[in-house]
Design brief:
Elements lengths: L1 E7 L2 E7 L1 H16 L13 H10 L6 H19 L6 E5 L7 H9 L5 E7 L2 H14 L3 E7 L2 H9 L6 E5 L9 H13 L6 E7 L4 H8 L5 H16 L9 E4 L2 E2 L4 E8 L3 E5 L4 E5 L4 E8 L3 H10 L2 E8 L5 E8 L6
Helix pairs in contact: 2-9, 3-4
Length: 337
């Protein structure tokens, strides 16, 4: 693994080149499309175009996740920050444009003179743009931006002397993991936390199916464009020849799994050739590529996952409809280092 660090417009940018980033697009695509149930990993969504499309999704009227989480943070940011240590750093996995994060930055700077913010996102260009914008808005903020996958970023965080820290994982990004993956992720984060650190997670809750499905099948078709952009990226970066319009977007809620499944459904019998894998992949009409999961939790289930990973819920905040929860986790006493 190689790390490249440099300063751009007062942003310290650390680009972590992991084995996965360097070579696994080809490997992941070849493996995923060779399975009986074809699939592609959701990290492939987030080139610069994909990141920008996702920010548009977050503004859609059907996409309750961002709006509801932001309402909670607007109402409770000061209370959230009162519950953490003084003179903290702020770390964020999957930072995006840091829009909701500004509410917490404001609350933190109400009680301390300066703040070190460490956003982590997979899209280097988008991350840098967002970080530069933050520095134009906050003269008491310093930013170390990490362009990396979550797992690759964790050991680098230790070198940043961040404790005490408030670590953010907002937007219900935890929903992209199944229960086992979520527990492993939390365990990995916990290994790098001290007793004074806190982990703040946004969790989308189980609700009426029609509300859930509307969030991923919006009427303006931005989510469709986001999903199909994955194929555009494969055409560009590994010389695939997907005919994008021969696939339909569909994201049903699978009640038995309590998850949304993002799918790209083949409209016809067709074959796709990818130059970089040297392989052709056959699709029957109505066969689909599974591109993402988004699990919906009950608080009881999320608490079980957290406890299994060595955490306990210290506090939580929900909206009036109980559609969404912002959860503060701390290490269990027997996990503290």
């Amino acid at each position: 693994m190689q790390n490249k660090g440099h300063v751009v417009s007062n942003v310290k940018l650390i680009e972590v080149e992991s084995t996965k980033q360097l070579e696994s697009m080809i490997t992941a695509v070849s493996r995923g499309l060779s399975q009986t149930q074809k699939s592609l990993p959701c990290w492939l969504f987030y080139d610069t175009v994909g990141s920008e499309l996702f920010e548009k999704i977050c503004q859609l009227p059907e996409y309750h996740i961002t709006r509801t989480e932001k309402q909670i943070l607007q109402a409770k940011a000061a209370e959230i920050i009162q519950g953490v240590s003084q003179d903290i750093s702020l770390v964020e996995f999957g930072s995006g444009n840091s829009d909701k994060t500004r509410l917490l930055i404001d609350a933190i700077l109400e009680r301390q003179a300066t703040l070190h913010y460490i956003p982590i996102d997979i899209s280097s260009e988008f991350l840098l743009q967002s970080s530069i914008q933050l520095l134009t808005e906050y003269n008491r903020l310093s930013v170390t931006a990490m362009a990396a996958e979550y797992q690759a970023a964790m050991p680098i965080l230790v070198e940043q002397s961040i404790s005490p820290a408030l670590i953010l994982f907002l937007g219900s990004n935890i929903s992209n993991f199944d229960s086992g993956e979520a527990s492993i992720f939390l365990q990995q984060v916990g290994k790098h936390m001290s007793p004074s650190d806190r982990l703040l997670i946004g969790v989308d809750l189980v609700k009426e199916t029609s509300i859930i499905e509307a969030a991923y099948n919006d009427s303006s078709k931005v989510t469709e464009t986001f999903n199909k952009n994955l194929l555009v990226r494969l055409n560009r970066e590994i010389d695939a020849n997907f005919v994008v319009d021969q696939f339909d977007h569909w994201a049903p809620f699978i009640e038995s799994e309590s998850r949304i499944e993002m799918r790209l459904v083949s409209r016809i019998d067709q074959s796709v050739f990818i130059q970089e894998t040297g392989e052709s992949y056959n699709f029957n009409k109505d066969e689909y590529i599974h591109t993402e999961n988004s699990y919906k939790y009950t608080i009881t289930h999320f608490n079980e996952i957290s406890q299994a990973a060595g955490f306990e819920i210290e506090q939580q905040w929900q909206d009036e409809k109980r559609w969404f929860s912002v959860v503060m986790l701390r290490l269990q006493l027997n996990q503290e280092k």
